[in-house]
């Protein structure tokens, strides 16, 4: 089993599916040496990506992003809160990433997935370091009221490149976000005006003109697998489980580096590899 | 190019390093690593029989448990656990003890910036102390990018909060053992030029990042030398510890 030429002989005799299950790494290496991947993509090509805005009607902003079959649903719920004493003119953005058992056989009900808090932390780091959302825009009345935005991302189908899809859906949901209309009530408190009230609110709304968030620079990410001398863009879950070294590069629309994330892995990245992994991303920007 | 740091260091100056190992009696291996006021204690138990669920039983499994100084573990600690685990996996020879689990417990004693690099260095020293087979050592360092574009090495907590971006980098240590010709090079670059782990926060230009890499790499050579000095070959009579 350990001999390389033994499996080479086997590959011509065993069925392809059996070979794929028994020697997954060799199966992939045979493909890589031909510069193609088992799903028919060249090494550097990402899967087809679609975004649908407004997928959740009850949310203030939402988006459904798909990269290949990896599916992420992001939704934002806005609430009025009293800002903290340290930052009276700033709102708050809370990001949470969920991996329910529906998304992958690895996730069991009742036990949270190991990857979920990591992706969640990565997302909030990336969104805060890119400076995409100006928290001052979430302020309503300085020191009195500000928006608390709950951004929740649900992974519906985990087929690799989770962070890329999660970031894409989060950014799309933020771009789709529309602030609810609020007004001051008799007690001087800021309340949300429900639209079914019949057209004529008694009080003047506080935020009539400003209903959209201005996104400054938009971050894009690409995850690549490093294996020997090959670089595979946008891996599937199967590829991620077989070849373990992942590198995630996040650039924003002004070509600033937001994050270069390589958590260990058996393959070491040298400078040239890093520079190469930038290029496909720059190409897409 | 000169920049004033709060503690009077130059931009390239590290805080005083200290490493002691074999400090816990029951652990199979233990080490403490401190960089200035940041101090981390690491203990290694194992290899123990069996792997955890969802791990490959054909390989040795490494489990990292992060204990913060106070309070419960949250998302940042979970992320640190994952990064330390992946980093250690890449330096261990996992095929030697298949179907075993090695637990690495990282206890934060004090956090004054560069916490994750400090923890990786401590864990690496503890693995050596426990006699876990390693391919090479790993040296971790934090590079901070100041507003002026200067790279500050080994920042304190205050500096980390003030600067616009920072990067945690882990480099492999120079391999001293004999290896087959050519295996020391990855695409023409010597292996110690490569990076094992990179975590960045804050926006920076690509050139700034490469600049950080260069500085970090230069400083990691000094830290490797220190790590090696503080890990003298263990004498065989030292095997009195039991689990």
TrEMBL record, chain A:
<dbReference type="GO" id="GO:0034476">
    <property type="term" value="P:U5 snRNA 3'-end processing"/>
</dbReference>
<keyword id="KW-0694">RNA-binding</keyword>
<keyword id="KW-0539">Nucleus</keyword>
<feature type="domain" description="Exoribonuclease phosphorolytic">
    <location>
        <begin position="46"/>
        <end position="180"/>
    </location>
</feature>
<dbReference type="GO" id="GO:0071035">
    <property type="term" value="P:nuclear polyadenylation-dependent rRNA catabolic process"/>
</dbReference>
<dbReference type="GO" id="GO:0071038">
    <property type="term" value="P:TRAMP-dependent tRNA surveillance pathway"/>
</dbReference>
<dbReference type="GO" id="GO:0034473">
    <property type="term" value="P:U1 snRNA 3'-end processing"/>
</dbReference>
<dbReference type="GO" id="GO:0000176">
    <property type="term" value="C:nuclear exosome (RNase complex)"/>
</dbReference>
<dbReference type="InterPro" id="IPR020568">
    <property type="entry name" value="Ribosomal_Su5_D2-typ_SF"/>
</dbReference>
<dbReference type="GO" id="GO:0034475">
    <property type="term" value="P:U4 snRNA 3'-end processing"/>
</dbReference>
<dbReference type="InterPro" id="IPR033196">
    <property type="entry name" value="Rrp43"/>
</dbReference>
<dbReference type="InterPro" id="IPR027408">
    <property type="entry name" value="PNPase/RNase_PH_dom_sf"/>
</dbReference>
<dbReference type="Pfam" id="PF03725">
    <property type="entry name" value="RNase_PH_C"/>
</dbReference>
<dbReference type="GO" id="GO:0071028">
    <property type="term" value="P:nuclear mRNA surveillance"/>
</dbReference>
<keyword id="KW-0271">Exosome</keyword>
<feature type="domain" description="Exoribonuclease phosphorolytic">
    <location>
        <begin position="218"/>
        <end position="266"/>
    </location>
</feature>
<dbReference type="GO" id="GO:0000177">
    <property type="term" value="C:cytoplasmic exosome (RNase complex)"/>
</dbReference>
<dbReference type="InterPro" id="IPR015847">
    <property type="entry name" value="ExoRNase_PH_dom2"/>
</dbReference>
<dbReference type="GO" id="GO:0005730">
    <property type="term" value="C:nucleolus"/>
</dbReference>
<keyword id="KW-0963">Cytoplasm</keyword>
<protein>
    <recommendedName>
        <fullName>Ribosomal RNA-processing protein 43</fullName>
    </recommendedName>
</protein>
<dbReference type="Pfam" id="PF01138">
    <property type="entry name" value="RNase_PH"/>
</dbReference>
TrEMBL record, chain B:
<comment type="similarity">
    <text>Belongs to the RNase PH family.</text>
</comment>
<dbReference type="InterPro" id="IPR050080">
    <property type="entry name" value="RNase_PH"/>
</dbReference>
<keyword id="KW-0378">Hydrolase</keyword>
<keyword id="KW-0540">Nuclease</keyword>
<dbReference type="Pfam" id="PF01138">
    <property type="entry name" value="RNase_PH"/>
</dbReference>
<keyword id="KW-0271">Exosome</keyword>
<dbReference type="InterPro" id="IPR036345">
    <property type="entry name" value="ExoRNase_PH_dom2_sf"/>
</dbReference>
<dbReference type="GO" id="GO:0003723">
    <property type="term" value="F:RNA binding"/>
</dbReference>
<protein>
    <recommendedName>
        <fullName>Exosome complex exonuclease RRP46 homolog</fullName>
    </recommendedName>
</protein>
<dbReference type="InterPro" id="IPR020568">
    <property type="entry name" value="Ribosomal_Su5_D2-typ_SF"/>
</dbReference>
<dbReference type="InterPro" id="IPR001247">
    <property type="entry name" value="ExoRNase_PH_dom1"/>
</dbReference>
<keyword id="KW-0269">Exonuclease</keyword>
<feature type="domain" description="Exoribonuclease phosphorolytic">
    <location>
        <begin position="13"/>
        <end position="133"/>
    </location>
</feature>
<dbReference type="GO" id="GO:0000176">
    <property type="term" value="C:nuclear exosome (RNase complex)"/>
</dbReference>
<keyword id="KW-0694">RNA-binding</keyword>
<keyword id="KW-0698">rRNA processing</keyword>
<dbReference type="GO" id="GO:0000177">
    <property type="term" value="C:cytoplasmic exosome (RNase complex)"/>
</dbReference>
<dbReference type="GO" id="GO:0016075">
    <property type="term" value="P:rRNA catabolic process"/>
</dbReference>
<dbReference type="GO" id="GO:0071051">
    <property type="term" value="P:poly(A)-dependent snoRNA 3'-end processing"/>
</dbReference>
<dbReference type="GO" id="GO:0034475">
    <property type="term" value="P:U4 snRNA 3'-end processing"/>
</dbReference>
<dbReference type="GO" id="GO:0005730">
    <property type="term" value="C:nucleolus"/>
</dbReference>
<dbReference type="GO" id="GO:0071028">
    <property type="term" value="P:nuclear mRNA surveillance"/>
</dbReference>
């Amino acid at each position: 089993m350990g001999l390389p030429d033994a499996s080479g002989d086997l590959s011509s005799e065993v069925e392809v599916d059996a070979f794929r299950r028994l020697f997954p790494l060799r199966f992939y290496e045979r493909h890589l040496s031909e510069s193609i991947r088992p799903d028919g993509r060249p090494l550097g090509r990402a899967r087809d990506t679609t975004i649908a805005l407004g997928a959740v009607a009850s949310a203030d902003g939402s988006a459904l992003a798909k990269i290949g079959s990896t599916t992420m649903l992001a939704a934002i719920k806005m609430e009025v809160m009293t800002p903290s004493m340290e930052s009276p003119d700033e709102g708050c953005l809370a990001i949470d990433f969920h991996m329910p058992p529906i998304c992958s056989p690895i996730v069991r009900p009742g036990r949270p997935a190991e990857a979920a808090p990591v992706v969640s932390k990565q997302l909030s780091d990336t969104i805060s370091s890119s400076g995409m959302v100006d928290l001052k825009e979430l302020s309503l009345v300085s020191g009195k009221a500000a928006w608390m935005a709950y951004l929740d991302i649900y992974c519906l189908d985990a087929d690799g490149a989770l962070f890329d899809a999660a970031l894409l859906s989060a950014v799309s949901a933020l771009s789709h976000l529309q602030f609810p209309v609020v007004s001051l009530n008799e007690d001087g408190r800021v309340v949300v005006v429900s639209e079914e009230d019949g057209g004529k609110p008694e009080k003047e709304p506080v935020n009539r003109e400003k209903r959209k968030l201005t996104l400054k620079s938009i971050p894009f990410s690409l995850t690549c697998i490093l294996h020997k001398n090959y670089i595979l863009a946008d891996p599937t879950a199967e590829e991620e489980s077989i070849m373990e070294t992942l590198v995630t590069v996040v650039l924003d629309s002004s070509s600033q580096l937001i994050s270069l994330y390589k958590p260990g892995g058996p393959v070491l990245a040298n400078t040239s590899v890093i520079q190469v992994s930038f290029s496909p991303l720059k190409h897409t920007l | 190019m000169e920049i004033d740091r709060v503690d009077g260091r130059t931009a390239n100056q590290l805080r005083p390093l200290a490493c002691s190992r074999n400090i816990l009696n029951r652990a199979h291996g233990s080490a403490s690593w401190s960089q200035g006021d940041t101090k981390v204690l690491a203990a290694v138990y194992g290899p123990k029989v069996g792997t955890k669920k969802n791990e490959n039983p054909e390989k040795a499994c490494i489990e990292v448990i992060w204990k913060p100084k106070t309070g419960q573990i949250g998302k940042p600690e979970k992320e640190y656990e994952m990064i330390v685990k992946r980093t250690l996996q890449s330096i261990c020879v996992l095929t030697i003890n298949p179907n075993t689990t090695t637990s690495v417990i990282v206890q934060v004693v004090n956090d004054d910036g560069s916490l994750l690099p400090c923890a990786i260095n401590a864990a690496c020293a503890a693995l050596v102390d426990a006699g876990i087979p390693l391919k090479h050592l790993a040296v971790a360092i934090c590079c901070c990018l100041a507003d002026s574009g200067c790279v500050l090495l080994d920042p304190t907590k205050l500096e980390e909060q003030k600067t616009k971006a920072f990067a945690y980098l882990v480099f492999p240590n120079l391999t001293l053992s004999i290896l087959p010709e050519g295996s020391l090079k990855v695409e023409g670059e010597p292996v110690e030029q490569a990076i094992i782990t990179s975590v960045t926060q804050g926006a920076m230009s690509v050139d700034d990042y490469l600049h950080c890499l260069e500085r970090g790499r230069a400083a990691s050579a000094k830290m490797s030398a220190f790590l090696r000095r503080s890990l003298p070959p263990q004498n065989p009579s030292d095997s009195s510890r039991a689990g």
